[in-house]
Amino acid sequence: xxxxxxxxxxxxxxxxxxxxxxxxxxxxxxxxxxxxxxxxxxxxxxxxxxxxxxxxxxxxxxxxxxxxxxxxxxxxxxxxxxxxxxxxxxxxxxxxxxxxxxxxxxxxxxxxxxxxxxxxxxxxxxxxxxxxxxxxxxxxxxxxxxxxxxxxxxxxxxxxxxxxxxxxxxxxxxxxxxxxxxxxxxxxxxxxxxxxxxxxxxxxxxxxxxxxxxxxxxxxxxxxxxxxxxxxxxxxxxxxxxxx
Length: 244
Hints:
mainly alpha; GntR_C; Arc Repressor Mutant, subunit A; Four Helix Bundle (Hemerythrin (Met), subunit A)
């Protein structure tokens, strides 16, 4: 049963975040079970979990509605992520990284360094950056010796563009994406240098800036193209403030 529930949660979550389920539709146990080809029992548990995660809203009577986010919601979630990851970076700087942590972070930085040395970015490079970015952030969180940081981050991990690795390509914006990747790589290097030097204050401050910036940097580097993509997914509400 656990495997069936995990499958249902994973597949429904991906459909919601990728905009594959219309926000206006009522999601019921029977409709979701039919869509996934599963029985209603694991689907019932999966829908309840996705409600807890904040991706679904329980309706009166039967069923759920996909929760649309405003840009303000995304900014608030980014603020929480920034505070938690800043705490993780500061703690790791104070504790000192293990050899395993050093190997993982330096592998991540080497991956992104290989991208920023290129003259252009392709879908392949975007995918590599996603992998490297997620490795960088999850390694620091896992190594900070505070499980509550990880548990807190799990609550917002599936909100669009907020989680590490949630880098979304925008067609026709390769130059802007390259700039965004370059800035991200540079910040990773600065954060890691502070951690290796045992400078908890600098590590915390730089991580807060870096981890709290997804929406702000999307507006800065990509602007209206990114906003239109978020709107087209159905996850972000129309009428929420666009690029300013």
